[in-house]
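User: I'm putting together notes for a lab meeting next week and I want to include a structural view of one of the chains we've been expressing. I don't have a solved structure, so I'd like a prediction I can at least talk through. The sequence is below, exactly as it appears in our construct file.
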Amino acid sequence: MKGEAVRHAMNGVAEAPGKTWFWELAAAVVDADRCVRCGACVAVCPSDSIGLNDQGLPALVKMCTGCSLCWDACPRAGLRVEALGPAGGPAPAAPDELGEPVALVAARAARRAPRAQDGGVVTAVLAAGLESGALDGALVAVPSADGQPLRAEAKVVTSAAELGRAAGSTYHQVMALAALDLAGVDLPKGSRLAVVGTPCVVQGLQAMQRRPWPGGTGRHRVADVVLSIALLCTKSFDYQALVLEELAARRGVDLERVGKVDVTEGRLVVTYLDGQVAVDEPVKAFHGAALRGCAECPDVLGHSADLAVGSVGSLPGWSTVLVRSEAGRAALDRARPRLDLKEADDPEALRRLARADRRAAERALPRPLEPQGRLWIEWDEHRTWFSGSDRAPVAAP
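Assistant: Thanks for the context. Below is the predicted structure for the 397-residue chain, given as structure tokens.
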């Protein structure tokens, strides 16, 4: 594997046992085209040795120490994601497809932000937390500073006023957890943060909080996160492939006029600011732009988050909310004055989606799904399962 020859040649010193290096992670995930771009490896590195390359993918920026934390935090490498339960605890012994939520409701914001997706619930929950002082900041996706249309980046916002820029869904990953270094944000350590992201983002976060590094995780403020919100997700996309190629080049979408992109009921819908529908096609027509590693995820319903929110199971204009922890319940309670709440419209739709998602993961993964298995998978185990498959670790050229 990449880097092994260098390590073995270093003064003839034998490698300490039990180490897993970034080179193994790169071979198994990044080079094997399985990276889901959650940013966990960047956030967990205690020496800040992992950054991003020109393609926005994880890469070494200085010497790896072999601490193994990037391997353990990666939802496509050392982390057995199906063994994570609510708020990072163990998976329930015999849950139904919903994962035994504390509560299941449909909600919508009484006053929605202009760009809010579905019921605008996530924005309302975060605004309530920030305005009440229960939260000092929230990690969200906002329009990219480079001005590229429909492109987003991860940012920590510290006021309800800033949340308006984050309203709406982003269908490409933004290396969210890498932004927990709070660059340019004046928040002292010990601040209370919320993280919003796809289930894999929350999985990586929970892995880091379950296995904290005694000296901290470099600049990244993992320990400060007190609330996680998962956005129900079957797959995410590559920005270049989806927006620039599939939408703009192949379908002639005027990106400057787009008001909303939505994936609902198995269809991808692009709507212009004036209400005209530019694209309405089965989402499977865009599978070539999806991140390949997404097919391996059995967690469409965000089982390890405090709150999981999405449109499935609710009428148009409403969001389904799965409350999975006491922290999630408290966050929803703070937002009650801002929300209309009722019983979830169609819980069975969530169960059907979860079953289909698990079947897809079982087809894609060379390893078995083991909800009651050990939370962490060793490199040698991974290599045994994946070698010979179409997702095998990629050897150095």
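A couple of points you could mention at the meeting. The CA atoms of residues 40 and 204 lie 5 Å apart. The longest helix spans residues 347-364.

User: Perfect, that's what I needed.
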